Amino acid sequence: MKGQGQGLRLYAILYLIFLYAPIVLLPIFAFNDATIISFPLRGFTTQWFAALTDLPTLHLALKNSLIIAVSSSVLATTLGIFAARASTRYEFPGKGGLMGLIMLPLVLPEVIVAMSLLMVLLGIGINLAIWTVILGHTLICTPFAIAILSAAFQSLDKSLEEAAYDLGESKLSTFRLITLPLVMPGIISSLLISFTISLDEFIIAFFLAGSEPTLPVYIYSQLRFPKQIPAIMALGTILVALSVLLLTIAEYFRRRGLKKTGAKDTGGFL
């Protein structure tokens, strides 16, 4: 048993090195004073971060990605609230199958989803633009929002809502005054996770963006130019830092919500 435990520990260490070594190398080369990504390092510099301010196409792509990420996260979380509320509070025919269909994008390859959406949109004569990417990202983010919000609604004591009904509150006022504040940490967590997923998503944006580039699509297009790679490494460093920050905040609000409702923690993002 001792040997087996050491083997599992060694496997975990090697797995973590394989998983995070590229991320660790990203900021190292972003601050390296050389246009060639290789060792040994030449010296420390911040010129590649400064160079990001002189790329108007990057600024347009960032603007598009922020619009898409904010819109998708709000739409996905709104739909997630409705679906999570229905699945945790009500019983109706076909509930299991319907929820399974809603959660299907979690297991479908994104390239299949992107191609299907592209064919449908072009088939009905819709031009590709930012809003078509928002549609695709909302489809992808909604299952994640439902998973987070379902846990928030399940941990909420139903007796609190029943007590509000007994005191004369309507269902709408009970939801607004009692339910919504208690699940607010889950809502904030859903918004942040959906925002992060949309901001980093490439495949659907690549198929549905048309002539409106998003940040991941812009990064992919710049990889053809060796002189741009250091600046892309700097941009990647910023995105990694932003993603970690958003995930940390989302985890904080998730745990805060569990503590607020007294539910058991069954695992989180971090």
Describe this structure in words.
- The chain has 270 residues and is mainly α.
- It has a single domain, classed as MetI-like fold (Orthogonal Bundle), CATH 1.10.3720.10.
- It is built from 11 helices and no strands.
- It has helices at residues 2-30, 47-51, 56-89, 95-102, 110-123, 130-154, 158-166, 171-200, 203-208, 215-222, 229-261.
- α6 packs across α8.
- The longest helix has 34 residues, at 56-89.
- The two termini are 29 Å apart.
- The relative contact order is 0.14.
Which descriptors apply to this entry?
270 residues, MetI-like fold, mainly alpha
Helices and strands in order:
Layout: H1 2-30, H2 47-51, H3 56-89, H4 95-102, H5 110-123, H6 130-154, H7 158-166, H8 171-200, H9 203-208, H10 215-222, H11 229-261
Organism: Frigidibacter mobilis
Keywords: Cell membrane, Membrane, Transmembrane, Transmembrane helix, Transport
Family: Belongs to the binding-protein-dependent transport system permease family. CysTW subfamily.
